[in-house]
């Protein structure tokens, strides 16, 4: 019996030893996977987080980048009829329809736009949308300058720039998958992850960077998991093309059929069919729906069947499925006599589609009000810092062991250009928007040229400058560019920071304050890095 008991104890000890060994090897493999999945595509992850975070306020950014619209603050319902008059005079006959977007908490102007369907031999049917911004009180055209605005940052976030959209989304999808792997392996790797959350050691070299990395990762961990997983769902049609072969076949057949049929353009005749006033219809629609109207779709303009569809601005429900209307219900009227046609509601969809739409709605914060949008923005900032500190940790760990290695020097140059360089390029994009004359036809291309030129120079700078000093130089450059944006706005816009507060234009005021706060934080970072360098 004693010998048998001894054998059992030996087996237990062996099993425990094997388990510990396997556990340690598993953790080592997770450490390797976490490091290299984060390092190889880390700079692209930083770009995705940085531009995606700014995209939460892409409409506000566009408003700031069109200073001609800053004087539009108070909305007068009578301006809706002025918008119709503007569309009657400027929209072409071949326009498929008109859209009037009313002011809300994210924009202060009336947007009058129309869509013309074009047949492209390569891409098939491609709608071309023309946007014009009108004063919310008078309905007069603001003659806002042409700019990509915040839409460029959003498009750069989801498909990069200068390459085919499909290829760009492939690259973004691969980087998103690497980010998801890095997050999951990071959770497995740090066995004291929640204990380390409350620990921050200053002036401890790599440990300080590690503490910052863990803190920003845990602080918004649910957001990081949600944003990466939902991003993969949004790109699954591209990442898993074998699941969509039948859909693509039917789409190609439909496109070929539509391209083979000539489009008949019926000239608008506003003398025979003048539209009734939209003002009483707008009031009636808000009373029927119990919500503020955000958009007015006008179909068949200048024809006997001309109708107007009144749609609330957005839905607060995460699972709502109609992305084009962003509301569950809408009402329609005849614009020939003002007759009420009825109320339309969104059709129920399957549970699977509702779940998919919930993730996509969460990803872009389509449901969010201003407060929730700021929470998403701050969570995105945490993700951006988490990615940046992760890249810096690798160079800090290799500082002594491989001080002269080519790999470490390359990573440090890419860190400087990819982190501070992207921040400087975005600030230069804002500066170019105001310094390039508004009358230039190619000003939109010049804005992008300024963005990519500054970004390219930020990679070249650490090649001819000591890399520690390059960090300080570019941090100070970013600090100055962002901190002085409110000053630039004061000289190039009728609405400076003080006037914006007094007039209630919180979009302009919020942008200026955020830019100022960003500049101050970057300046403090530059001071801290320069002190560390001297020490």
From TrEMBL:
Record flagged with keyword Transmembrane helix: yes
Domain of life: Bacteria
Keywords for the protein's UniProt record, in alphabetical order: Membrane, Transmembrane, Transmembrane helix
TM stretches of this protein: 32-57, 170-189, 210-240, 371-393, 413-432, 475-495, 507-529
Classification via Pfam families: PepSY_TM
Keyword Cytoplasm: no
Record protein name field: PepSY domain-containing protein
């Amino acid at each position: 019996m004693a010998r048998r008991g001894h054998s059992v104890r030996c087996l237990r000890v062996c099993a425990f030893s094997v388990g510990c060994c396997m556990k340690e090897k598993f953790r080592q493999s997770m450490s390797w996977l976490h490091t290299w999945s984060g390092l190889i595509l880390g700079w692209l992850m930083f770009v995705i987080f940085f531009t995606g975070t700014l995209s939460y306020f892409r409409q506000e950014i566009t408003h700031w980048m069109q200073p001609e619209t800053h004087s539009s603050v108070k909305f007068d319902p009578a301006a809706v009829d002025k918008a119709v008059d503007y569309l009657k005079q400027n929209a072409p006959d071949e326009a498929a329809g008109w859209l009037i977007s009313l002011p809300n908490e994210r924009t202060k102007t009336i947007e009058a736009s129309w869509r013309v369907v074009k047949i492209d031999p390569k891409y098939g049917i491609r709608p071309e949308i023309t946007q014009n911004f009108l004063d919310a009180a008078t309905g007069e055209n603001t003659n806002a300058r042409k700019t990509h605005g915040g839409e460029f940052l959003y498009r750069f976030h989801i498909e990069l720039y200068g390459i085919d959209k499909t290829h760009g989304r492939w690259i973004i999808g691969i980087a998103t998958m690497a980010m998801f792997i890095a997050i999951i392996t990071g959770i497995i790797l740090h066995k004291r992850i929640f204990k380390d959350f409350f620990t921050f050691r200053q002036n401890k070299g790599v440990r300080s960077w590690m503490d910052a990395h863990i803190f920003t990762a845990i602080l918004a961990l649910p957001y990081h998991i949600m944003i990466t997983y939902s991003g993969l769902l949004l790109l699954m049609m591209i990442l898993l093309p074998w699941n969509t072969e039948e859909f693509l076949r039917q789409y190609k057949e439909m496109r070929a059929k539509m391209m083979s049929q000539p489009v008949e353009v019926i000239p608008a005749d506003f003398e025979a069919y003048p539209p009734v006033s939209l003002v009483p219809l707008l009031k009636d629609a808000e009373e029927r729906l119990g919500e503020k109207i955000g958009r007015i779709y006008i179909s068949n303009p200048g024809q006997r069947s001309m109708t107007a569809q009144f749609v609330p601005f957005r839905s607060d429900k995460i699972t709502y499925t109609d992305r084009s209307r962003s509301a569950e219900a809408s009402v329609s009227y005849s614009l020939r006599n003002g007759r009420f046609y009825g109320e339309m509601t969104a059709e129920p969809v399957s549970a699977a589609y509702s779940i998919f739409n919930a993730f996509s709605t969460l990803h872009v914060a389509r449901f969010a009000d201003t407060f929730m949008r700021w929470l998403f923005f701050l969570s995105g900032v945490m993700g951006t810092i988490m990615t940046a500190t992760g890249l810096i940790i690798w160079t800090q760990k290799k500082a002594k062991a491989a001080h002269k290695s080519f790999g470490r020097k390359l990573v440090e140059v890419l860190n400087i250009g990819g982190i501070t360089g992207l921040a400087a390029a975005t600030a230069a994009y804002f500066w170019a928007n105001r310094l390039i004359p508004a009358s230039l036809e190619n000003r939109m291309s010049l804005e992008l040229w300024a963005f990519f030129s500054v970004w390219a120079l930020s990679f070249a700078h650490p090649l001819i400058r000591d890399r520690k000093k390059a960090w300080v130089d570019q941090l100070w450059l970013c600090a100055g560019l962002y901190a002085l944006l409110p000053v630039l706005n004061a000289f190039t816009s009728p609405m400076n920071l003080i006037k914006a507060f007094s007039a209630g234009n919180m979009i302009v005021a919020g942008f200026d304050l955020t830019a100022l706060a960003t500049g101050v934080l970057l300046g403090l970072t530059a001071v801290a890095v320069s002190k560390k360098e001297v020490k």
